[in-house]
Write a structure and sequence with these properties.
Length: 396
């Protein structure tokens, strides 16, 4: 049960509705190359159009660091959104100011406007109260439909809710409902697969789920910190030296709880990323000093597949190798195929890299849900409520 009000709980007809979306999409040559995040907002935008709202969309794009960056303007996003909606989307040259107010005041019911990149203003990330007030002055209702930024206490996510009634859009509601099912009432056996570069990024997930999960399978760059904490030599593989004690403590804690904590038994190593000819598969106790790990090996894939058998709930966050390079992608592909092949299993993938890997291997239909939130989904499984969700109106 989603405990926050949504756009279906409020009157939107005729109202100027400010919607925080996440249109932080990849661009190349002035065109959107992956429109998944734009598509996620369509249900909410179409609902507002059909119900006679005046829709003002706001998003960030890239990392302009508080300055106007020509390549990070929202024009390509507006063009793609217009194509998907089948109606014109007017893109403005700023997100605050008199010209923006004037354009908003001229809107008719069903019109859609896209504001310029929020992060061209440093006040956005600083959650500046004055900037939040300026944004709020454009509308009469605020809708958060950007789960992926809801862990950020930014002006367009949190600050704005001081000035306008704030409710959730359909995409945010769907994210929270699916992730809550994993967090609060997972069916067992429940397997958590963690990859990516850093142990520090995943501490919250491990701590938040160590009581609920039956086993943890760990790959990717973060696995080498755990392997070194166990006493293995890892060559030049990625390692967070300042997290070795923490890693040892995590493994000990999970072992005391009688849970499985599974690390790779073999890995793919190279001398340099570019030196694909040096690629070898070695056991984890035989990594040469001049080599670095870039993927898990076939035996590890088999072990992970075995540990996934019979799972009823799976959460996967983080690829287990450098999947962007085909020669180092087999481990991540094998894990993705193993999850996609499970029967009667509620499988959730989180994080942008994980979603990109699943798309690369054409396995989107093999997962129950693919989350749009990287950092947000990680923090969701931690102990605090995401500030962007906490700020929304509660159901009575």
């Amino acid at each position: 049960m989603f405990g926050k009000k949504t756009i279906e709980d409020v009157e939107v007809k005729g109202k100027k509705v400010l919607v925080r979306v996440d249109f932080n999409v990849p661009l190349a040559n002035g065109e959107v190359t992956d429109d998944r995040r734009i598509r996620l907002a369509l249900k909410t935008v179409n609902y507002l159009v059909e119900n006679g709202a005046r829709i003002i969309l706001m998003s960030h794009l890239g990392r302009p660091k508080g300055k106007v960056v020509e390549e990070l303007k929202m024009d390509p996003v507006a063009r793609r959104l217009s194509e998907l909606l089948g109606k014109p989307v007017k893109k403005l040259d700023d997100c605050v100011g008199e010209e923006v107010k004037g354009a908003v005041n001229e809107m008719k019911e069903g019109d859609v406007i896209l504001l310029e990149n929020l992060r061209f203003h440093p006040e956005e990330k600083a959650n500046d109260d004055g900037f939040a007030s300026q944004l709020a002055s454009l509308g009469e209702l605020y809708v958060n439909d950007a789960f992926s930024v809801s862990h950020r206490a930014h002006a367009s996510v949190v600050g704005i809710t001081k000035y306008l009634p704030a409710v959730a859009g359909f995409s945010l509601k769907e994210e929270v409902e699916h992730l809550s099912k994993v967090k609060e009432s997972p069916e067992h056996p429940f397997v958590v697969i963690l990859g990516g570069a850093k142990v520090s990024d995943k501490i919250g997930v491990i701590k938040g789920l160590e009581d609920k999960a039956d086993r943890f399978l760990v790959g990717g760059g973060m696995a080498y910190t755990f392997l070194k904490a166990k006493g293995f030599e890892i060559g030049r593989s990625l390692c967070e030296e300042d997290k070795l004690e923490l890693a040892a403590g995590i493994m000990n804690d999970i072992s005391k709880r009688g849970k499985d904590f599974v690390l790779p038994v073999d890995v793919v190593v190279v001398k340099e990323f570019e030196d694909k000819g040096s690629k070898r598969v070695v056991d984890v106790d035989d990594i040469p000093s001049e080599y670095m790990g870039v993927d898990i090996g076939a035996r590890s894939v088999g072990l992970f597949r075995e540990k996934l058998e019979g799972a009823k709930t799976v959460l996967w966050n983080g690829p287990v190798g450098v999947f962007e390079i085909d020669e180092y992608a087999e481990g991540t592909k094998g894990v993705a195929e193993a999850i996609a092949g499970l029967q009667d299993c509620f499988s959730v993938a989180g994080g942008g890299d994980t979603a990109a890997a699943i798309k690369k291997f054409g396995l989107e239909n093999g997962f129950s849900f693919i989350s749009s939130g990287g950092g947000a989904s990680l923090e969701f499984f931690g102990e605090r409520e995401l500030p962007g969700i906490a700020a929304l109106l509660d159901r009575e």
